[in-house]
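Standup notes, structure subgroup. Blocker cleared on the beta-D-galactopyranose input:
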Amino acid sequence: MRSYMKTTAIALALTAAAGAAKADGHGVEVLHWWTSGGEAAALNVLKGDLEGQGIGWTDMPVAGGGGEQAMTVLRARVTAGNAPTAVQGLGFDIIDWANEGALANLNSVAIAEGWDDVIPAALQQFAKVDGAWVSAPVNVHSTNWVWANKAVLDANGIAVPETWEDFAAALEALAAAGVTPIAHGGQPWQDATVFDAVAMSALGPDGYQAAFVDLDPEALGSDAMKEAFDRMAVIRANVDENFSGRDWNLATAMVINGEAGFQMMGDWAKGEFLNADKVPGEDFLCFRFPGTQDQVTFNADQFMMFDQGGEVSAEQAALATAILSPSFQSAFNVVKGSVPARTDVSNADFDACGKQGMADLAAAAESGNLYGSMAHGHANEASVKNAMYDVITAHFNGEFDSETAVDELITAVEIAQ
Ligand code: GAL
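Run returned:
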């Protein structure tokens, strides 16, 4: 009885605080980079959820896939002493902000709601610092996917490639037929996203771990790494001439419209197909990059709650609770292309790609084949990641041959640490 009364009192206090927040026009201010059609559709699920609770939403979108520009804006806001309430964040960036003491402790919400029991360890390592939950995990994305236009593949007699050699042959067939084989946007984070999968295929999981997580110079300088760069050169030869600077969602549109056969991109690309009313298995195909069928290179979007004066605010608590609710985890991720951050959410509402994503994630976690994405800040810290981006992009644009790229990678990583 007493604990019931206490809970009720807290609930009433939260409701009152939330109501007050709405009345004086505060609510939550949310900084994010979800600006493409599919991303915005997913974000609307969260906005609608909070608005339904009477909590106002001030939108702070910063365009730029992968979030680099958003992180620059965030740094400026924090430096000016004006941090937003909640900020989309990835991997090591979250740990860095927590270590700077910038984030609120969410334990009061996380413990009451049992987050420890339902959020997998791979995510907890980027959401908890020194025993304190500092961010609310929204989803799990993964980067080693390929998206294909089914009609284009069928018209050219191309089956889903199983190996790198199959994939290279498919690219050749499309080029010969006058179709752009690969839709790509030449931006460093996109080059690196492609490299995640290519490196996993060439190095294998142990090599990926050694090179990108352990930063072992031998793995960074291995023949397998040179092979990864050679494969990147094949991919570079199969993009159209206007690839430079193109946004990722415009590259996805090329596959949707049948202008290109494939896109190698994280499963946020699926949000674009769905937003264009396309159906997996009928209009488009999703499959793991050949040679990485057993692996998952993941990144998880989370909302960091910036400390607003010691305690987590009522609005931040409500946002965290909304994000972790099983119904939201399903509704949001069905639209976003990602899979739930909780292990106890049903796959019933997910399409074929989503169901595969959930099954692949569980299998990879079980078999030790789940790896943090280098390209999306889950393998190493920002300084190292950015050093890797520079080398990958310079090689992609023909500044270095593969052998030079390997040497440059070793040096860049050494300097960045
Ligand atoms: C990723 C993020 C995804 C998606 C993508 C493109 O870093 O995890 O949610 O937004 O960038 O913007």
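Discussed briefly. Residues 33-34, 39, 65-67, 90, 141, 248, 268, 299, 301, 376 surround beta-D-galactopyranose (CB under 6 Å).
Next: hand off to the docking folks.
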